[in-house]
Amino acid sequence: MPFRNPDLPVDERIDDLLGRLTLEEKVSLMHQWQPAIPRLDIPAFRTGTEALHGVAWLGEATVFPQAIGLGSTWNPELLEDVGSVVGTEARGFNAIDPDYHGLNLWAPVVDPLRDPRAGRNEEGYSEDALLTGVMSTAYAQGMRGDHPDYLKSSPMLKHFIGYNNEVDRSTTNSSMPARMLQEYYLEFFRPAIESGAVSGIMASYNFANGRPAHLSPLIEDEVRSWNDVFVVSDAYAPTNVTGSQNYYDTPAKSHAALVKAGIDSFTDRGEDSSFTTASITAALDAGLLTESDLDRSLRNMLRVRFRLGDFDPPGLNPYEDIGPEVINAPEHQQLAREAATEQTVLLKNEGDALPLDEDGAGDVAVIGPLGDTLYEDWYSGTMPYKVTPLDGLRERLGADRVSAHEGVDEIALRVAETGDYVTAPTDESGGQLTTSGSGVGTAETMSLFDWGQGVYALRTEANGKYVSRGWDDVLRNDQVQPNGWQVRETFTFTDAEDGTVLVRNVQSGNYLTVGADGGLTTGTADAAEATRFVRETVSSGIDEAVATAEAADTVVMVVGNNPYINGRETDDREDIRLPAAQRELIRAVTRANPDTTLVVESSYPLAINWADENVPSILWTSHAGQETGHALADVLLGDVSPAGRLPQTWYRSVDELPSILEYDIARGDTTYLYYDGDPLYAFGHGLTYTDFTYSQPRVSSSTLDPDGTAEVSVDVTNTGDVDSDEVVQLYSRALDSPVEQPNRELRAFERVHVPAGATHTVTFDVSGADLRHWDVVSDRLVPTAGRHELLVGSASDDIRGTASVRVPGSVQQPTRHLAREAENVADFDDYQGVEIVDRSKTAGDSVGAHAGDWVAFEQVALSRSIRELRLEVAREASGTARVQVRLGSADGRLLGSADVASTGDRYAYETVPVPLDEVPGGRHDLVLVFGGEMRASTVRLSR
Q: Where would I find the CBM6 domain in this sequence (predicted)?
């Protein structure tokens, strides 16, 4: 059959296969779990193997640092090597079970890290589009392989578009004004797609400019203009369209709309495809979809399967012989160590406290709740082994020189009414907790881990396992670590008036109760029915940690977060500080032994203000996988000079951040692009164990044409006595722009190795195409004319030299001619309060406004002959609301006003004439002030 002929072009092979499939078979292939079609000898196929920082959920595999850690390497060559290992190991798993271990990999994630509270912060690379684009392209290129025709694996970008909050994530609207959408959000996705490094994208859960992102016209209008892509839904998102999002009233309508919007594969309800196939069949029967609509989607999917080699005879695919022996191969372990080392960031090093002298450090105490453990996260693979920070230092210095203490309290819970103590089974597998104990021994002792925001985990000393709520409400000590989609190992303590406490399981919301048989369950949601406990401290974690610190010469303190608690998918953080117990631990230990190095191991930035002021040296690492301990030892003891750089701004307080739902980073003054405050640590920050000097940057031309390129060169000299990498960063700043521009923006970077005493010349290309902005009048990118300062340095706030170029052209803001033709209200220049919403269910943007909101159109050509403004509006609410037209500002001179009556539906638009008086001539700013709820689509002036 022609579709099996590898000598034919792929498109011809796809056409042939589509012509052989029945309509029912085509429908079956629209689900994530595609069944085999025996009559054509087509194997089953599954989309969606997770591979964010290693192959996940399939068993033991090489686990690399979290994506945010990979981003902090600023090393695309390393990322490509890591991606190649991930693709190779995916092939190894595929050889074990081709039907379940698929080669369509759902990674990398390119969501902007615009807010450090976002639960999925650990999954992205950075807050910057260029850095994310370079790193994600490299990772994906490694996964896909270097063959021109065959794919080692098929990487997919997540999650398109405007997805950065977990609270009500399927019902909140990410409002992205035109300039922010074009200059920021789309640019995170464009590079990997345009380069062909990825096969496609996954749509996101949120509303994007008023529409479910799965139905966004941007999929067809933008993404598919960059390259051919395969588009998958996120899990259960198709159900949301008629469920939580209430956008369509029947699955037939929603599935038809999803296919037409560009969704090619439905990830819904696990392996059960019946809902998807029934909904698509109903849409076909109702005439809402045609077979050709399905053919278009299947073409995108089949292109991927053909390139993976699904339909080719043996012997052609260069990746087909990769077997399971590659999984966690020794060279992969070495690369994991290299990646964990390169991502480490030296935040502070007062008085050259680091590196530690291997002999002179004396006895070392490893203190802190993360000192002797490694955590996996939700999208992590299963670590085949774990080298903790304590392991790494003991391996190097000897167990006799390295002591340890977690610094957490040990407690016992006594039932207030009976005096019995909560007792845990000592079996390794654990069992139900009871209240049979009359005193405090090992079985009654639990370690209390404070993970912040009032949330705790309890580890029983009886068997070293964590207390977990079973689905039968029984409390058991049977979990190695808090884990799972619904974390059942976390609790809160509420003080009662009589000095007792109520203990509540976070996942269930129920309180602990003791049954007649003495067994503990999460038995009630009513606090009045909860068992009251007395919480007794068996030993103070801080007191014992202080004693351990005082007995040592040097302290390495390891603190941070648990990736399953307070900051993960489905859970945004409320605060950006360390848990209170960890803050107290840092203070006490540092005061007890000032020779302390703090290691912060976290999935996101933390406000460690006291530590920055008082601890001599501070390192940051992500949860860096199986080789974390080796990497930290290599850095702490000076085998490697740390050179990672922060891919995200570290703020001093949550008070510096706007609402997590503020997606206009310019309006919210967030990320290094627009933040005007004094960060704790700036984007790009990171120190080394040596010093670098920079020459004054040299530019090949002082004028940069919009289609041209200029070279920027700088000499970087290692003036210290330690060989080290340095990350050289180039930023630009527009000096004459008529519209708001970032404070500075990353244009290029290079991580270079410079031996002690040597000089390395770094040369960057600056493209005129980079120095553009989105013009809301013409709806296109235009050159930003005028002067541009080029800033070269070691961080966004550590600039070592500047130069400048000039882009030819007018620096004046273009004139708006609203009297010539209607313009979209959503293409405003300035605004307050409004959000971008859907003009209709399928296309177009409007402005959604409430009382007091306004939009401004700048430099509008006016004349005294203008008599009227015509505004296309929809108002779903009953009654009327007033709209005003003002000159210059929202409280400027009133030119006219009119009432907007209810149109009965948010999509029912009518044109409202607004009479205008005494319109001046010349160019002026025109402001629409809204007096109530309405949607405004287009605006035009008339004479």
A: 818-942
